[in-house]
Write a structure and sequence with these properties.
This protein is of the alpha+beta class and about 180 residues long. Helices cover about 15% and strands about 30% of the residues. It has one domain: Multidrug-efflux Transporter 1 Regulator Bmrr, Chain A (Alpha-Beta Barrel), CATH 3.20.80.10.
Length: about 180
């Protein structure tokens, strides 16, 4: 089954990563104070109808996870709370005004600002260890290439737990300045 993905344009390929240009997107977001399963459950209930109007929202990919950092980061506006969050992107047909409003106060609708993102793709399980290893490599590649980073690493997971690990698509993304 194919899920909608945020649209992007690849503007550079090579150096161990690609650079993508994304437009603004709407996401449902939950702070991960009680762990990953807590956040995922709340977001899944939101798209399953735990919202004003009890509307079902189509599942999209990827599921994004990151830590907020205290700098100008369009993906996460400020450092607060636990600093970790999970996001489900909403289908392109929604805006902040038209998206169903969450009934759970832990779920917030946010605008994920578009811009340039350096992206490194990897297979396997989306564990913290695998994501950290890929993040470290991407940050080193960006530093070596003299690229200015505007965010910390964002983990993007595209497949569910029943997909064989060797077939899973995972990415680490970093918002960057790009000429």
């Amino acid at each position: 089954m194919a899920y909608e993905e945020p649209r992007y344009e690849v503007v550079h390929q090579g150096d161990g990563f690609e650079v993508r240009l994304y437009a603004d997107r709407i996401a449902a977001q939950v702070e991960q104070a009680a762990g990953e399963n807590f956040a995922f459950g709340k977001l899944f209930r939101y798209i399953s109808g735990a919202n004003q109007g009890a509307s079902k929202v189509a599942m999209t990919v990827p599921v994004a996870q990151a830590e907020k950092i205290a700098m100008t980061v369009p993906v996460a506006q400020a450092a607060s709370g636990t600093g970790r969050y999970m996001q489900f992107f909403l289908p392109d047909s929604f805006t902040l005004a038209t998206a169903p409003q969450p009934t759970d106060p832990a779920v917030r609708l946010v605008v994920v600002k578009g811009g340039y993102y350096a992206v490194s793709r990897y297979a396997g399980r989306a564990t913290d260890q695998n994501a950290d290893r890929q993040s470290t490599a991407l940050l080193a590649q960006l530093t070596a290439a003299g690229v200015t980073m505007l965010s910390g690493p964002i983990r993007a997971t595209y497949n569910g737990p029943f997909t064989p690990p060797f077939m899973r698509r995972n990415e680490v993304m970093v918002r960057i300045e790009w000429p």
